[in-house]
Every structure is written in structure tokens, then in C-alpha cells.
Design brief:
By secondary structure, the protein is of the alpha/beta class. Helices cover 40% and strands 10% of the residues. It contains five helices and four strands, in the order H-E-H-E-H-E-H-E-H. Helix 3 crosses helix 4. The longest helix has 23 residues.
Amino acid sequence: MNTTRGGWELNRSGDRMVEGVRLALRHPDAKVLFAGGASILAPGQESEALAARRMLIDFGIAPERIVLDEKSLNTEENARFAKELAGDTAGQTWLLVTSAFHMPRAVGLFRSVDFPVVPWPADYLASGAEGLRFKPDQSTENLVVTTIALKEWIGLAAYHWTGRTGHLLPAP
């Protein structure tokens, strides 16, 4: 949300927010837990969690259904703090909604803190029918996608090699 103008501005990863709202509307009795603190790279900017809360409420989600983690600064903390906020999850189904490219690392970290989640990917960067993703006429897009892929692969390897996840590539 743009707090200055009061409107919504979704960035490249906005699909995950839209999918979260869609699921919340479809399942009116479900809690909505959003984990995402303020970026250390953007001091003074509101946290992702507060922006998500405002968006959910604007779309008619009752405030008492919304649980926020504003402290987490990375995916490992998202998992740990979300588990604490969710409490006893026995007999419950929790969906993990995040960008598809980020899902393996995220689900691995949620499993490592014993928070059973069902992966619900959104925000796909490809349709799945492209084959090789390289686009000769779009060098900037190629660089962006390559950077995202490298970040996720390095993150997967680092979390696995430091013992923070049990598998290099967690299965669905």
C-alpha cells in the first residue's frame, strides 16, 4: 500500500498478496497469519505485515482473523515466529502462500521448526511451457530472473549446509 496516497501498489511479488486475499475470502473461518517485518534496507517504511493487514481489511477480512508477525527479517524468522503465533496446530491445516520460486526454501524452513504447512505457490515467473527461459530480446528480464534464481539456490544451499533445513531441495 502506498501510505502517502492511500492506494495499493503491488510490486513484482504482488500475486502472493492477491492469492492470500482470495484464499481468505474463500475460507471465511480461517485465520490469516502474515509474517513479514520491515526491511532493514528501507528504514522508516512500514512492515509487510502492516501493509498486508490494511489490504486484508480493505477487502473485507475481519481484523480478528488476522495474526501478524512484524518482527521477522528473513524467511527463517518468518517460519519461527509464525509457528509461535499459530500455537498448537494439531488437527489444523495451514497454507504457506509465497512466491513459487521461493517455495522450496520457505517450506524447508517451516518444516525445520515443525510447522506443518501445505505449500500454496503463487507469483509464478513462468507458465511452465517456456522451455529455456532466456529471451534474447529482453536482457534486463533475463538478468532479473537469473538473479532471483541464484539467490534462491544459494539460500537453499546455505540453509542446508548450516543445518537449518534437512534437505537441499525439500519435496512438496
